[in-house]
Design brief:
This protein has 248 residues and is α+β, with helices and mostly antiparallel strands. It has one domain: Creatine Amidinohydrolase. The chain has four helices and 15 strands. It has helices at residues 7-30, 37-50, 117-134, 143-155; strands at 54-55, 67-71, 74-76, 90-99, 102-111, 160-161, 167-169, 176-180, 197-200, 203-205, 211-213, 220-222, 228-230, 233-236, 243-244. The strands form four sheets. The protein has a five-stranded antiparallel β-sheet with strand order 8-7-9-14-15. Strand 11 and strand 12 form a beta hairpin. Helix 1 packs antiparallel against helix 2 (37-50) and helix 3 (117-134) runs antiparallel to helix 4 (143-155). It binds 2-amino-4-trifluoromethylsulfanyl-butyric acid (MF3) and cobalt (II) ion. The site of cobalt (II) ion (CO) has 5 residues, from loops.
Length: 248
């Protein structure tokens, strides 16, 4: 069931989104060579709780941490641990928080120090794909318009979109209907209406779109070991411009 949010609910989701954005800013500031992903996780959880929110990932289907940290060929759902970041790595950080019963969900991929030109290009294309999708989050368009915009943006730039994981409705639940794949056909899917809220989250690979899950049961990696990036925002469909909720 696709839920429509009232303006009161959208205000609360905006607050949840602001908290998520603040945590991502802190992660950007802290992520550097020598820092461990466990240290990032501890800081993120501390900040989320300090702002009166709950880390939504922790305990979700048994997930053990407050954030996901996915390095290089890791696509999503990497579990923070004692691994230290290296100069040249790319680090995807995914943060979710519940504030007054409403969810915010966003992710960024952070270059650690100086990264290769191809890594830099991957980050640019992935973030661009997210904004191409956001531009289609308008009443009267369809979910397939978002999917197609993301896929076209990526594939016309010679990269691939992950297919097994999708964007999603969000609100009182982290995952609500509808699913929003990062590939698809324009003019298909659900008609978008004012008050719908989505987490849009392209995952983009330099090589094949295919992925596999490591033996920890969580970490998703590219099948060919090439780099992957992930950008995500929670957005609301309004009577006009798309409203991005996970910003400061
Ligand atoms: N942004 C991810 C999602 O929407 C975060 C889920 S990670 C999990 O699915 F650990 F909570 F599963
Ligand atoms: Co999400």
């Amino acid at each position: 069931m696709v839920t429509l949010k009232s303006s009161r609910e959208l205000k609360l989701m905006r607050e949840a989104g602001r908290i998520v954005a603040q945590v991502l800013e802190a992660m950007k500031a802290k992520a550097a060579p020598g820092v461990t992903t466990a240290e990032l996780n501890e800081e993120a959880e501390r900040l989320i709780r300090k702002m009166g929110a709950i880390p939504s990932f922790k305990g979700y289907h048994g997930y053990p941490a407050a954030i996901c940290t996915s390095i290089n060929e890791q696509v999503v759902h990497g579990i923070p641990d004692g691994r230290r970041l290296n100069e040249g790595d790319i680090l995807s950080v995914d943060v979710g928080a519940i504030y007054k019963g409403y969810h915010g969900d966003a992710a960024i991929t952070i270059p650690i120090g100086t990264v290769s030109p191809e890594a830099r290009r991957l980050l640019e294309v992935t973030e661009g794909a997210l904004w191409a999708g956001i531009a289609k989050a308008r009443a009267g368009l369809r979910t397939g318009d978002i999917s197609a915009a993301i896929q076209d943006w990526v594939e016309s730039r010679g990269m691939s979109v992950v297919r097994e994981y999708t964007g999603h409705g969000i609100g009182r639940q982290m995952h609500e209907d509808p699913q929003i794949p990062n590939f698809g056909r324009a003019g298909t899917g659900y008609v978008l209406r004012e008050g719908m809220t989505f987490a849009l989250e392209p995952m983009v690979n330099l090589g094949t779109w295919k992925t596999k899950v490591l033996s920890d049961g969580w970490t998703v990696v590219t099948e060919d070991g090439k780099l992957s990036a992930h950008f995500e925002h929670t957005v609301a469909v309004t009577d006009g411009e798309p409203q991005v909720l996970t910003v400061l």
